[in-house]
Amino acid sequence: MRVTVPEQDRRPIKRQTVRRVVGAFRPYRRKVALVGLAIAVTSGLGVVNPLMIRAVFNNALFGVPPGSPTCGGLRCPNLHLLYLYAGIMILVPVLTGLIGIGQTYLSNLVGLRVMQDFRNALYSHLQFMPLRFFTTTRTGEIQSRLANDVGGVQSVVTDTASSILSNVVVIVSSVVAMLVISWQLTVLSLFMTPLFMWLTYKVGKARQRVAAVTQQSMADLTTITEETLSVSGILLSKAFGRQRHEIDRFRGENERLTGLQIKQTMIGRSFFALVGTFFSITPALVYLVAGWVIRGHVGAINSGDLVSFTTLQSRLFFPIGSMLQVSSDVQTSMALFDRIFEYLDMHHEIADAPDAVDLPVDRVRGRVEFSDVWFRYDLPVEETTPSEISDDGHARHSREWALEGVSLEIEPGQLAALVGPSGAGKTTMTYLVPRFYDVQRGAVLIDGIDVRKLRLESLGGLIGIVTQETYLFHTTVRRNLLYGKPDASQEELEGAARAAFIHDRIMELPEGYDTVVGERGYKLSGGEKQRLAIARVILKDPRILILDEATSSLDTTSERLVQEALRPLMRGRTTIAIAHRLSTILSADVIFVVDRGRVVERGTHGELVARGGLYARLYEQQFRSGAVEAVTEDGLVLASGEVVRRATAPDEL
Length: 653
Hints:
Blueprint: H1 15-23, H2 29-45, H3 48-61, H4 79-127, H5 131-136, H6 139-152, H7 154-181, H8 183-190, H9 193-228, H10 231-240, H11 243-266, H12 269-296, H13 303-344, E1 368-375, E2 403-410, E3 415-419, H14 426-432, E4 441-446, E5 449-450, H15 456-462, E6 463-467, H16 477-482, H17 490-499, H18 503-508, H19 526-540, E7 544-548, H20 556-570, E8 574-578, E9 590-595, E10 598-603, H21 605-611, H22 614-623, E11 628-631, E12 636-639, E13 642-646
Parallel strand pairs: 3-8, 3-9, 6-7, 7-8
Antiparallel strand pairs: 1-2, 1-4, 4-5, 9-10, 11-12, 12-13
């Protein structure tokens, strides 16, 4: 499979990226200093034994001259020096090993802590990204940045810094010792190194380009896995019989990823094989040149010098090869760091203003006001619903603004309903109250204070939201409820569950409140999940409540149970409710009719029906069948807009 690398991924290493990576080690500078000291000591001690070998050969093994009474006319060992040198040669590795254990622990500790900091920083930064980011970014892509990208640089952060320092000390100390023994042999050993360094740089650049594409492919594969192996994804593929299609899609991306990984692995392998071959044959060249030197009497060199030199040479070649490989790995890792910093550098559009204030829940009245609000998303709002057909039968064009000059007031404790065609801007309006988005013009105010002047944490404590799509964590009922109030007691949990008419159902579960609800709560029915979500909001006890089509996807019985659960939740709170099914908002204190980003009508149910406008037409469309469509808070059954009787059956209440 041919794998190509896009031009946009052929980027040079950025100095700023290097500075930021180095800066990540700053909190651990004392430990880094200890690691550096340990590396310098152990690497420096590594030169001792080769020099001891030279001394053993030249001074100890043949240290007593011929003719000495103890040698019988032959050269023989100087045992005193031999004992001393042998002792040093035994002590140095032991000492090096002990220091190395501490060095390894500290270097891994620092490296893993740095990776922990990167993961924490990335996750924390993403938590405060605006909703706009998550609606335009695939979940698998985000997960890949947290897991694959950070994990991809872990070995470099953990090992590379110490490896570079260790190799530098080894190379410098070895070269100095080799020069002392023979500069001619040293030149021979190192004359190809500059060429190898240049080739390594080129190999590293190639691997860096492929690494960027590899990580993107890994993100794509993670996205496919996350989308298709979730409960929702599996249900969809089974319902449409698309398992084979998903398997083929996964295999195709997996094949692409494998091809990229093979290419990344093999880039430069022939080059490194050439380097290894050269380093392996260099000792033979050294022996050959040494023979010429000895035969031509060009310089004094003896067996001790030669053995010591080749020992130093073998010690030198490994760190040189390692440095060449490290250089390539570092360039590869820079592509991953760039991806991490790309997310960390994203702007938090929704953030606390410098003069932001807290608004304690116990002091909030709950008055909500939209003052000439204009809002648009990044792209023009394209409507694809039947509301594109205007009253005169002509198609409506796409509009630039999602909301245009919206002004309204909701008094404390009122139930305000937002009604209108799909795509009219109702949900957008509710997103502006908790600052999921910020307005471009005008202001949204709570108790007369612009929400942009309130601290986000304080604002979040004031507002409770129940949406059509209830999200439950894959954990116990208890933990899902405690998300609304982490310090709640068991009595408070049960009280909230009873108020939401879900306590009895919870007690029927195998482990009661400690039952795991499954992925996205799939062990519960839609109505049960919705009532559990309502109990969670009841436990939070917000002053302002937003209901975004909280019952639109439920059957009639579940809808009535959820409506019954909502009554105690709405009581005494400012409530903003969105509903396509008008049966849920007939008892609203005020109804705002929204169409194409504007509030076109406002009033009570009776006033709007009598007016004969858009609300009356929507109401007529839903109630023209004459079927029972609504039960009011007072228990009155409505059909075709008329009160026909009082509800008596339990399933009607």
